[in-house]
Design goal:
By secondary structure, the protein is low in regular secondary structure. The chain has two domains: about 50 residues, no CATH class; about 55 residues, no CATH class. It is about 15% helix and about 10% strand. The chain has a two-stranded parallel sheet. Strand 1, helix 3 and strand 2 form a beta-alpha-beta unit. It is globular. The termini are close together.
């Protein structure tokens, strides 16, 4: 989940990091998608249970190259899987990490 909160992409609410993966997998990840400014939501109801864990993505795409954007100031998040660290430059090995820092101010897009 790229966003700080699950509100903008799913029918859930709250900080993404405050929910466990079992709960996140129950959400409809197609719920908030709109290509026409909110007139229609063509994927609503079609994305339930489709949020993959990072390890599932890496397994499904073994030749892929990834840049993982950690949205926190917690260094441990950038070192919790092989090949990543806060100092790993983008494009070094199959994985790169980027620490995005603090949560955006209230009312700002995440």
């Amino acid at each position: 989940m790229h966003d700080w909160t699950v509100d903008c992409r799913t029918q859930g609410s709250g900080d993404t990091r405050s929910h466990d993966m079992a709960y996140l997998k129950t959400l409809d990840i197609g719920y908030g998608y709109t290509a026409d400014g909110g007139a229609t939501f063509p994927f609503r109801g079609k994305g339930v249970g489709q949020m993959p864990e990072l390890k599932e993505v890496l397994t499904a795409l073994p030749q892929g190259r990834f840049l993982v954007n950690y949205k926190s100031n917690e260094e441990r998040e950038a070192t919790c899987w092989p090949g990543s660290s806060p100092t790993t430059p983008s494009g070094a090995g199959p994985y790169g990490a980027h620490m995005a820092g603090m949560r955006p101010p209230s009312g700002q897009p995440s």
